[in-house]
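## Example record

The block below lists the input lines for one assembly entry, exactly as stored, with component labels intact.
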Amino acid sequence: MDHLPPVLSVRGLSVRFLMPGGRRVAAVTGARFDVAAGECLALIGESGCGKSVLASALLGLLPGNAQTAGSALLGDLDLLAADERTLARTVRGRLVGLVPQSPAAHLTPVRTVRSQLEETVAALTATRSRAALRTAAEAAAARAAFPADHLDRHPHELSGGLAQRAATALALVGDAPLLLADEPTTGLDRDLVDRTVDELRRHVDEPSTAHPGGRALLMITHDLAAAARIADRIAVMYAGRIVELADATAFFGDPGPRHPYGRGLLQALPDRAFTPIPGMPPELGDLPDGCAFAARCDRVTDACATQPPPGTVACHHPHVPEDVRA
Amino acid sequence: MLELRSITAGYTRDAPVVRGVSLTVAAGESVGLLGPSGCGKSTLARVAALLHRPDSGTLLLDGAPVRHWRHRAPRDQRTAFGVVFQQARLSADPRLPLSDLIAEPLRATGRGEDAPDRVAELAPAVGLTPDLLTRRPHEVSDGQLQRACLARALVLRPRMLVCDEMTAMLDASTAAALVAAVEDYRAATGAALLAVGHDRTLLERWCDRVVHWDGLS
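Predicted structure tokens for the full assembly:
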């Protein structure tokens, strides 16, 4: 897939929130990454590190006190510069499909899954007649493996897994080249997490007439096991910055993460050392001048009082493969 | 110390979600209760923590049968339990700064004068810094709020902790930190633990004994 241009290309993306009293919260700083067709990039990090703000920025869903900088190119369109009309009419659902966090809250509670699917099909495609809408909605449900005999149920009558599939079906209706999944597995049990990410992976790999190379998926998650199962590449976010971009196999296997924060996250897993990273993430409104992880890091030196150089690993003292083997 | 005998419980009269389930947690023991979502394990945890009255069955606390649940339970039985729920946001009063949130059980039992000392003692134990204690829930992250909810569960020095999916919404590092805080408390006091969850790897690493829901009834 190297010859294809990326579906989404993010450069220098920053988001600042202006708070009362002139305070500024640096929610995202200088994010840079690409996602290609047929590829899944998992953005991982602790809660409150800026992951969801980044997703909202890509969909133009930031609150009014947010200021953005940089660019996020989807084809020729810069998502950060697009006006609301463009975002509403051509981006959301059509170019970017959102698989939401907590689907039970995302679905309209007073309407059946069928009626929501038909409405989405009518809004996003040229399908018009009643019968055609019904067929298209059933086909959309089948694509996301949502059982046809549950279509006439209301969201509260669905289990967590089926609600997730209904939300995924809605996200797939517009046949968008980019899928954005924001914590799609939060609160699901392990079997359901595995099934949900396997289904997302299928939608990434599956070629369609509009996207012969498959779809691109940006998945935001704090579930490392889910990320390991689905992702081709991993972006680690800490205090609003992407501190490491790595190949998923190398990150979760050998040689492992290169940034001390990524290593700490993996060591906190119950099937590894089960030891937490000491301390807590810094406040995004009060970040240190130097490396934001320095206060919690076991490799800290005087050099860490300055911002680490940009690159695939934003660290003054990254782990190198040699000392991992030693 | 805690014995549940053929408990049947639910929310509507004819459709119990828990049927004839028995489970024992010995003093100082940590038991992991593993089951898929929707199986009724949270309901059983609520019965065990005296928060939900079962339709039938017996619950023995230190050998004595429990006759009353919720606010009707005698104070010495009620305060024997500390409970941490999955969703910190839903189990925290949005009006209370974290220090008051943690101290609420003390005030509710007429020991409000102990609050400053106990909060100062517990905050570092769960990893909360002093600047966070003056904030209200909407000003902290999910992980920070769950740390406060754990401190609240520990403030009356319970003999038994019930953790219902305590770490399901949290990242790996915060989850490991909260489990470590629970284990520190248990090591210092000998409290027992009932940890309910769906993550086998986590419960097997955390608890002395893991029972699967299917093997209970």
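The two ends of chain B are 20 Å apart (CA to CA). The mean pLDDT of chain B is 94.
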